[in-house]
Amino acid sequence: MEETTSAKVAPFFEQPQVQLYQIPVGKGLPLGIKRVSNTQLGIGGAYGSWGESYDNDSLQGVIEYRLGAPLSQEERMDLASLGFLYRHHTPDLTPEEHLEAEVQVGAHFLREAASACGWEPGEVEAVLIGVSGPASPDYTELIAKEAGIPENALKVSVHKACDGSVGALHLALNPELGSSWNMTRNLADELRGKKVLVGGIEGLSRFINASKDKNALQFFGNGAGVIGLIPGESMEFLVGKSHEVYDEEGVLAVHMYYPHSRKKSIDQSNIEISTTGDNFIRVAGLMHEPPDGKPIAMAGMMGMVKLFVRSGVHVVREVYGKYLELMERRGTPNKGIRVAIVHHANLKINQLKAKHLHGEGILLDMPWLLSEFGNVSAASNMMAFLRQLPGLRPGDHVLIDGFGAGTYYDAMVVAFGA
After folding, report:
1. How far apart are CA 272 and CA 292, in angstroms?
2. Would the pTM of this model clear 0.85, i.e. be above it?
3. Is the backbone peptide bond immediately before 140 cis, with ω within 30 degrees of 0?
4. What residues does each domain of the chain span?
5. Strand pairing of 86-89 and 126-130?
6. 169-207 pLDDT per residue, tens
7. Closest by Cα among 285, 283, 287 to 183
């Protein structure tokens, strides 16, 4: 896993093939989107960000404005060593303007992702979106309507923090997953053979602006990634695992801006499923919330390592073992995993995870790909996947590894094409 440097990476808006838009909210918000297609696989999508782009030096001024006080030298994180070179933030807006902006942004990504697959919005049969702190509880419905996706298409919102988009993809592919959450519908069976959009859309600068958390303000930024696929045809589920370890200590506490009873389950899942009519499903994960009602509160790096690396290695180890067993049964014991798409929490967490796995003989390529965006929560896996998509070929196997506050983990191996 190679570290990036500012000499290697230009700001996202200045990169080739990035289409620039202006969202007419406030004084105007810049939006950059890159479409990606792989016709061999029949998969495409779109990723990008919105708001002003700040490098690590200029970001300090934004943070100090939010805090109303300067950051001390000890409080300034070495962001480049954590893999982050730029961040996209929106300016001060009213709640109504934030919602309007993020609905317009989300609709852009849905339309562009459909187009990258050669689909019209009216052909899309399901939309599954991971979002940590939605600007509105019906955000997925709003963006689908704005994008021109049919009213009778299935819409699913997945609120599992940074694990949201992988949780959504897992739900769309693994027919055994929903039963563990007592879902009355088997979405993987329903969606097989249909045109489906799956992604993460995260307006995190809105989410963290009220937090006053000095780590969160440096880590997070806006980002989105949406892919289009046909479950069972362009992408096939091989093995996977969904796992929960409740964050008792509140190492990464996150306010739930979505419906949840806030009741902790002792012996069952902390995921709650709710529905609105026949076409909207909410998958809501319980979070340890900050005691002061703020959006987010983060512990230091060692807390993050304890929270994500130990359990994360366990989950990947189990999935990898299932994969080896499956390949043995299929008579292809030498078939390997092409690449691992891992949530971009920060570079050091991902390097440590890779190191632990390597020590157990699990050698996975886990490239660092998102230095221009910061931690973009549920968007990161889909953005990283789209950056790897052009190099994938029919028959390739890929590990997708999501994890987020709560704490929630989804890891799976998928296959492409025939």
Report:
1. 24
2. yes
3. no
4. 12-416
5. unpaired
6. 999 999 999 777 878 889 999 999 999 999 999 999 999
7. 283
